[in-house]
Amino acid sequence: MNVPQLRMDKATFLDWAGAREERYELVGGRVVMMIRPLVGHARIVRNLIRALDSRIDHQSLEVLADVATDTGPYTIRAPDVLVVPLGTDSKSKMTSTPVLIAEVLSESSGTIDLGDKVAEYLRLPSLLAYLVVAQDEPKAWLWVRAGESFAAGPQVIEGLEAVAPVGPLGFDLPMAEIFAGVHDGGRRDEAPSAS
């Protein structure tokens, strides 16, 4: 939802948004309000955080949620999940060096998460992988850096038995873990635990 009367620079936006309970992004200098997610969305975010946290190298990386990310001269996004290098100041209002970004689609975010954000995120020099996860079916879109660039399009991953191969970070994310408990009221007994 656009807040058309509000246009800001990044510093003003970070101060303004930090004083509010609602979630906002700055897109091209314009303030955009984020829609509150559904329970299924929140479950997938929780599962992604758990799955990533059980696989990353904790000597160099950490998993964060809903942290502002600098994606351009007039744009600050708030991805659902990030993997960032250790060392980011705890008092910082945003990060600019994510190595992995994950977004969970909602009814209103599909064209943005699979459109505008792809262009913005894939330009980040630090980014190694961008994962977009559907909310209503076990499906994901994955862009992975190979050398200096990303492939022209995403790898599409479908089905609970599939995995999302995050090669540059050295692990796979099983779709069964990402979608555990999402469509059955939160029960998590069907997904194998990470080892």
TrEMBL record:
SUPFAM superfamilies: Restriction endonuclease-like. It comes from the Bacteria. Residues 12-149 form the Putative restriction endonuclease domain. This is Putative restriction endonuclease domain-containing protein. The lineage of its organism: Bacteria, Pseudomonadati, Pseudomonadota, Alphaproteobacteria, Hyphomicrobiales.
